[in-house]
Queue: 2 jobs
Job 1
Amino acid sequence: MALPLEGLPAALLPCALADAPADSLLALSDEAGWNQTEADWRRLLRCGRGFGLAAGNRPVASAVLLPYDAGIAWISMVLVTAAWRRHGLARHLMREAVQACRARGRTAVLDATPAGEAVYRGLGFKPGLPLTRWHRPGAAAGPPPTAAAATPLPAEVVARDARAMGAPRSVLLNALAADGQRILHPQGSLLLRPGRRAWHLGPLVAETDEAAHTLLAAGLDLLGPAPAVADARDGSGLEPALAAQGFAAQRPFRRMHLGAPPAAEPELLWLTAGPEFG
Ligand SMILES: CC(C)(COP(=O)(O)OP(=O)(O)OC[C@H]1O[C@@H](n2cnc3c(N)ncnc32)[C@H](O)[C@@H]1OP(=O)(O)O)[C@@H](O)C(=O)NCCC(=O)NCCS
């Protein structure tokens, strides 16, 4: 029989998120008003490693560690159901994720909500890039774009993204591209994917202001009136274009890291892939 976890309520036991029913995972992200689909959870748990705590047979808290190809391991899906908050569950799962990250010799990076930031600062994470979630309600009946061909992304797209992030992540980018849409430009790229509430625009990586604006316009054209979200680097200059297309700033995120700071070129990163992927 599994023993109670030190310092945590006795009713809680570790659980394997990868084996949890989809509805129990979606219940966690839906409760927080997040946008992840079952495909997002499955992609994260296939490419990464989940850490969970269950009460009975339902997970009540989660965290996921997603190693990039090298250098960085991304941490996300830090969620605790409301009834179990402020019992140290997020801190416990984060310590496990950070330990696994250190064992791989990676820098841990994440995009924190204000509530999450309080937990991560206590664990030694350092604040970096400020980001803002932009949301456009759109028309529910927006036509869903058709699925893209699952061909690998061009090497220059993966290489430019690696410069923007400070680490390569070809496995993740190709998994995202296979489940969504891609728009390529000689000086940049934009991926789009369906979410539970809205389409997600990003990552948008570009060498120039002009390329970034062209890619954003092409992405919005592709989506038509569908609901959409985009996580923009503060001060990127895309804000007026987003506002003109009906987006409004919804909430802030803060990129944070623990370990050697990634040698990123943030000016290449206009829209992120979202807090779940980086
Ligand atoms: C953020 C969240 C994961 C925290 O989970 P939790 O299990 O309640 O956090 P913990 O109990 O482990 O908190 C550890 C410490 O972080 C700080 N902290 C946690 N939540 C906080 C909050 N809402 N405001 C201020 N400080 C907070 C406290 O210092 C806390 O220690 P204390 O309770 O001894 O004072 C949870 O509130 C949640 O799921 N929120 C919605 C989704 C979300 O924003 N997730 C974070 C994504 S980056």
Note: Helices lie at 22-31, 38-47, 89-103, 114-122, 155-165, 170-178, 209-223, 239-244.
Job 2
Amino acid sequence: MSVNTKIFRTSTFRLAAIYLLVFALSVAAILGYVYYSTVGLLERQTEETIRAEVKGLADQYRVRGMPGILDVVVRRSIETNGALYSLVGPDGVHIAGNLETMPQVNLADNVWLDFPVIVGKGDSAVEHTAHGYHIELKGEYELLVAHDVQELRQFGDLIRNTLYSALALSLLLGLSGGYLTSRNFLRRVDAITEASHSIMAGDLSRRMPVSGSEDELDRLAGSLNDMLSQIERLMAGMKEVTSNVAHDLKTPLTRMRARIESALRNSSAVEYKSALNQTIDECDGLLQTFNALLSIAQSESGQVRRQLQMLDIHDILIDVAELYEPIADEAGGSLTLEAAPHLTVMGDRQLLAQAMSNLLDNALKYGENEEGKGADISVTAAIDGQDVVITISDQGKGIPEEDRDRVRNRFVRLDESRSKPGNGLGLSLVASVMTLHNGQLHLEGNQPGLRAIMRIPSSTTIPASPSR
Ligand SMILES: Nc1ncnc2c1ncn2[C@@H]1O[C@H](COP(=O)(O)OP(=O)(O)OP(=O)(O)O)[C@@H](O)[C@H]1O
Ligand SMILES: [Mg+2]
């Protein structure tokens, strides 16, 4: 389709055409009305005057005969008010009146006619148009009463010409305006289409053009750009995860393969058994990694957001603490919980419990004090302004300030923690569960140790009272 045909198919051009039609009709109606109430009115008044004069003269003829009408025609012919008279006898001879020759047209009785008259004498003589009424009197006399309507006709022509030029001008301006705005619109749409084609071809960093006029196309392009940034971020995250997963699985799989190979070479039943047992352990580790990745993927998918329910953080904390308290005790540490009642949030119970477990697991693993005694963990939960705030604090080594952002990324583990089991996915899951709940994860120093803070917007809805 050529650019020009595309322009005529744009909604902008169609809208411009509709406006143009309405505008042209209004211009025609207004000027038509002006014409009717000026030129039309003057024409009607002239005809009325002529008709009254003809009637008066015919009456004179009927009552006073030829001398009567002659008298009036002669008298009126002298007046210079633009009226023209011609009284003609039976043989076509001019009897009286300031119009000496009858117009050279076929004259019937009771007809209106337009005819040319010569006005002025000698060099200044010009032809004007006259409009008059012709009747036949008894005795084969003829009477023509007319008026010089040259100026009136010129005025009429002027108004008619104005009407036509106004219509032509509005059509021209409207069409070219519609063409230009549509072309501009189409150019921007084409630029957006072109950008989207190059994005589809793989250039994910490309963005839709924004003109800066903040109109509807700009707003559309803006939200498409936001969407593209989000997609780019997700794609980058996915690439990173894929390479991290590949990297992280390579080591245990290589280990497993080497072990199985050496067991096969030695072919003793005891070694087979131990190799299989170790393989099961490696498999458990791998499954754990996959489960953690799946939980992160689940909390990052929009689907869970639609299933959030009203929950009491207090209840979940009690359940989770119940699981971890014996473990802390056994390791020679302690776990204390101080949770205010009724901490309602909109959330996913399983993911929130998982996030709390991950933080408690970290506190247990990394929260041992200097003497290697088990971790003393303190858990609190309370309302702070509009948020429910949960803190999990230990008194271990803590995380240096410069690493507190980095440790939220997937597979990041600090060097001193390498002796402990783990994949570096725990805090990533907590962070993505917080994002899912419109909340935040803060990591602070606890002097000594680490204080992990989860902040989730609280949700207090008033139960609907039965209306009656
Ligand atoms: N309470 C803490 N005290 C000191 N260091 C911590 C604490 N919590 C986390 N870290 C550091 O942050 C790193 C990342 O923690 P994260 O929970 O993401 O992974 P992980 O515990 O190593 O493994 P996973 O949780 O997947 O089993 C840990 O390896 C550790 O170095
Ligand atoms: Mg952890």
Note: The chain has nine helices and twelve strands.
